[in-house]
Amino acid sequence: MRAGFILSEVWSGLRRNFSMVLSVVLVTFVSLLFVGAAILLQMQVGQMKDFWYDRVQVSVFLCPPDSEATNCVDGEVTGDQKDQIRAELESSELAPYVDKVYFEDKSEAYEHFQDQFKGTSLEGTVPEDEMNESFRVKLKDAEKYDIIKETFSSTPGVEEVVDQNQLLDRLFGVLNIATIVAVAIAGIMLVCAMLLIATTIRLSAFSRRRETGIMRLVGASNTFIQLPFLLEGVIASAIGATLSAGALGLLVHFGISGWLQNQATGFSLISGWDVLLIAPVLIVIGVLMAGASSLITLNKYTKV
């Protein structure tokens, strides 16, 4: 009997304040959409880091002819210098950090240059004998790049040491900033949602002040009086959270797994399964947000 009465009160409140309830649904939808987008973006950044950091290399470029680098004052790298650099890369001191070492000669460097700039104005602009020879070093831990740089930055015959991680760090830095912006917007929207939920509950309690007054006279408890109002906010917020999860699922399915995956072949992107993982999180956030906001308001306006 009590359950039936509470459910009827919840339905009556949702129907009476439909426009406000709809506003709660929409603002919760938008705010949790940003929260979900931020979580998915960080998941994608993590996948990209795992993929690229496992493949990046440190390039120890050797002195070409006519280089102006400090270590190249004696001209092009000599055979003895190359042997010394290789021996140091394969030494026991660097063994804990170096996974593989590959030497790229001028002809290979020239082929890679031609392939990279094929069809552009740079194709064929650098002759083969002016290309840099280099040692390509794959590290066991990509974050230990500084050890290789410190070891070879002043070595005769080495023009420069280049770490591909530096380029990736810039990319991931931009993505992390985008995540922070999304979280900031989501935080503002969540505050707006809580304020709107509080306003909706307060209006609902005011419109039914006569019923709650009668319930007080017959000895109804705080919980019994407040529960219908609490459920109204929770239901509206849960609907908004579910809609945000559904929108993210559609976006990932058609935009990322569909279109973007065909354009960015070669590494994995987030999928619908990732959305399924975060959907319960979004719903829990929505429910807790609505519950906290409703309780604070109800304790002020409907307390016996």
Q: What does the radius of gyration come to?
A: 31 Å
Topology as a string of helices (H) and strands (E): HHEHEHEHEHHHH
The main β sheet shows up as:
4 strands, antiparallel
Q: How much beta, percentage-wise? A: 5-15%
Structural class estimated from helices and strands: alpha+beta
First and last CA, distance: 22 Å
Cross-sheet strand order for the largest sheet: 2-3-1-4
Number of helices: 9
Low-pLDDT runs = none
User: Judging from the principal axes of the Cα atoms, what is the shape?
Assistant: elongated
- Percent of residues in helical segments? 55-70%
| Number of spatially distinct domains | 2
User: How many E strands?
Assistant: 4
**Nearest-integer average pLDDT:** 76
Membrane topology: Multi-pass membrane protein
Protein name: Cell division protein FtsX
Transmembrane segments: 21-43, 177-203, 224-256, 276-298
Subcellular location: Cell membrane
Textual characterization of the structure:
- There is one protein chain.
- The chain is an alpha+beta fold and 304 residues long.
- It has two domains: 2-52 and 169-301, no CATH class; 58-163, Alpha-Beta Plaits (2-Layer Sandwich), CATH 3.30.70.
- Helices cover 67% and strands 8% of the residues.
- A four-stranded antiparallel beta sheet has the order 2-3-1-4.
- α2 (18-52) packs antiparallel against α6 (165-207).
